[in-house]
Each structure stands twice: as structure tokens, then as C-alpha cells.
Amino acid sequence: MKRPLILSSTLLFFLFVFLSISFAATTLYVTSENAELKSESSSSSATIVELKRGSSLILVTTEGRWYKVTTLMNESGWIYRGKVSEEEPEIEEAEDDEGGLGGLLGGLSGSDINADAADSSRSIRGLSPEAKEYANTTGTPQQSQDALDSVISRTVNDAEINQFLKEGKIGEYAD
After folding, report:
1. Whole-model pTM?
2. Residue 34 CA to chain centroid, in angstroms?
3. HEC states along the chain?
4. When comparing pLDDT for 41 and 22, which is higher?
5. Rounded to an integer, what distance in angstroms lies between the CA atom of residue 76 and that of residue 92?
6. pLDDT at position 25, please?
7. What pLDDT is stored for residue 126 in this prediction?
8. Domain spans of the chain?
9. Which residues of 94-104 are buried (b: 16+ CB within 10 A; e: fewer)?
């Protein structure tokens, strides 16, 4: 008679563990600047609130590319999956208010591209002294150097990137 009792208690224990893991709340973090919590799972739906990068959210459910979440202030709504991550983002002080690609799309995951601070800041200033020296040594035409400097000096703001995403039906704007 003791054998069924042991089997039953073991089965109940594993069932309890499975249910505990299944219903554990998943915390998500906002990885994009000014991500919008929407009233429905659509980019065209009303915005409930703008969320700051690093904000914590509790995952309620998923629907396609959208997550239904609850904020720590108990606001409930939908956010596009590309704007959040299960990993808390590093929050850095911005050098300017433009935001740019890193701010708007900072949460995109899956890339193995890495750059240290020196590489990032050098790309903002143009060619590094080493690259200029190499270009001069190898006889790279000045016209090519000027064209590259022109491309590197261009900036794109959040509104322009958002317009590009809408027109291209990319990310949260894809139907």
C-alpha cells in the first residue's frame, strides 16, 4: 500500500514544480528609446504611455510579434517584440538628444556585431588617423576619401528612421 502513496506524492511534487515554472512571471525590459505601450497589438492603435529604455515589464501573453505586458505602474497594453528583451539593457548617458539608430532600434537582438567605445566614437568623427595614413600611403584618391567622409558625417534622427520603417513596413509596421 505504501508504494502508490510514494508514487502519488512524487507525481504531485513534479506536477507542482512544472506548474510553478509554467506560471512564473517573465520580466521583459524595454530596449528602445521612447517605446510605446499600445492599446492593441497594432502600431496604429492608441498609445497608452511612452516607456523609457530599461523599464521593467511583466509578460502576460503573446500574439504574433506583439507582447501583452503590464508595467510596474500597473498599466496594461501591447508592445512590439523588437522593442524589448529578457536581458536588462545597459543604460549609458547619451552624448546628444538625437537618439539615432541605437536609441530607436537598440533592442534588436541576434547580431554578433560588436564595437568598443573607441570604434564607435571614431566612426562619428570620420576616419581614424591610421586609416587616413593607410589611404595616403596606398594612394586612395582624395575624391574617395571625401566621399567616405561625407557618408560618415551624415546623421539620421528618430523621426526619419520611424518614417523609413513605416514606408518599408518593417518591424512593428509590418502587417
Report:
1. 0.54
2. 11
3. CHHHHHHHHHHHHHHHHHHHHHCCCCEEEECCCCEEEECCCCCCCCEEEEECCCCEEEEEEEECCEEEEEECCCCEEEEEHHHEECCCCCCCCCCCCCCHHHHHCCCCCCCCCCCCHHHHHHHHHCCCHHHHHHHHHHCCCHHHHHHHHHHHHCCCCHHHHHHHHHHHCCHHHCC
4. 41
5. 27
6. 78
7. 60
8. 26-173
9. eeeeebbeebb
Give 30's pLDDT tier (boundaries 50, 70, 90): very high
pLDDT at 14: 59
* Contact in structure between 57 and 77 (CB atoms under 8 Å): no
At 87, list the grid cell: 536581458
The CATH homologous superfamily to which domain 26-173 belongs is: SH3 Domains (2.30.30.40)
> Among all chains, which residue has been given the C-alpha cell 586612395?
140
Tens-place pLDDT, residues 102-123: 444 444 444 444 444 444 444 4
**Rounded distance, CA 37 to CA 76, Å?**
8
Q: Which residue has the higher pLDDT, 100 or 133?
A: 133
